Amino acid sequence: MPSSDSGGYVSLSEGANVYKSTTEPTKSLSVVETVKKAIENAFNSNEIEISNFSACNARDQKEIKTISKTTSIRMPSAPSHTAESTRLLGTMPAELDDIELRSVQLQQSHSRDSISNACDVHCISTDKGDIAVAVQGDLSKPAILTFHDLGLNYASTFTGFFNYPTMRAMLENFCVFHVTAPGQEENAPTFPENFIYPTMDELASQLLFVMSHFGLKSIIGFGIGAGANILVRFAMNNPDKVGALCLVNCSSTQAGWIEWGYQSLNSRNLRAKGMTQGVLDYLMWHHFGRNPEERNLDLVQMYKSYFERSVNPINLAMFIDSYVKRTDMNIARTPTATLKMPVLNITGSLSPHIDDTVTFNGRLDPSKTNWMKISDCGLVLEEQPGKLAQAFRLFLQGEGYAVGALQKLSREPTIETIN
């Protein structure tokens, strides 16, 4: 490179043009020459694009057509295989070998009707009317008695949970008795206006008729919401007939003013207008908490459809009246005023009933009680059935029941427990 006497660089002469013009034409071309050059470039790259053909005049279009005819067009040939690709293709078998599938197991149906088909429904007469009890399992096995929440029945509440693989395995060692509150069956007939719906204490006393009908000496209670309240009342009055309790979103106090106001309005609307949007929104909040659509839209739509189509509004209004008029259970953490059997007290981290379960836990014997809050759910049975089934199995195993082989436990910190 040329350099100056002082050791620095010197500029090139004006005549030595280092950079050649590559993007701008040295002279202006006519329309025909421009199109001809574009066609030649397009053929060389196997593409052709003439965007301003329509803008040319008739004479230019004629010349362009003549150029197109005289220009030889070569179609691109198929890519030739290299030596490496030929060698790889040669190693492939001419015919695929047969593959034998092993260890394929059929699973039971998870449909919403599967639990109904697996149960024998009995109509049992009591002093306050007839109640429906669905029996699932062998009658000679230990008994689990379930009770549902507001707006639901045994099938809509426990289908998803008892169809879970862990719970299906447990049914080999237990017999489940699903109790449905009066008039809460799907498409149930409407009660007459003069029908007096049983109170919460009377609903609890009806369980004595169920145990007498099937010859049960002791049960394991499994209740949700209003059903949990009923089972606690039954256990307080009959401690020798209850071996253990698993309760979800249980309230042990009477209804507050806000709950009383909302539920009274819901009952009035159900009697006068049926299932209104306000009642539907309250039921969804009661079961799922706030913003359930953000967690599981399909599950929310299924429950909304069930409330709108399968619930008898008059009968539900009577059940709501009975629940909102519930009395305090008068449970205290003393040897004579608390539950004497082991209790598994469960709620969801997004449930609106967390405070109720905490209050209930403070009234129980800490040596016989476990309080659990399962994360990322409001309706525990539907949104986290695996974690609830795992906790229920361990709870029963701790009480000496045979629950079969336990599955590998999850190590995720998703369950909060207070003993």
From TrEMBL:
Segments traversing the membrane: none
Pfam families xref list: Ndr
InterPro entries xrefs: AB_hydrolase_fold (IPR029058), NDRG (IPR004142)
Family: Belongs to the NDRG family.
Name this polypeptide is given: Protein NDRG3
Originating species: Chironomus riparius
Lineage of the organism: Eukaryota, Metazoa, Ecdysozoa, Arthropoda, Hexapoda
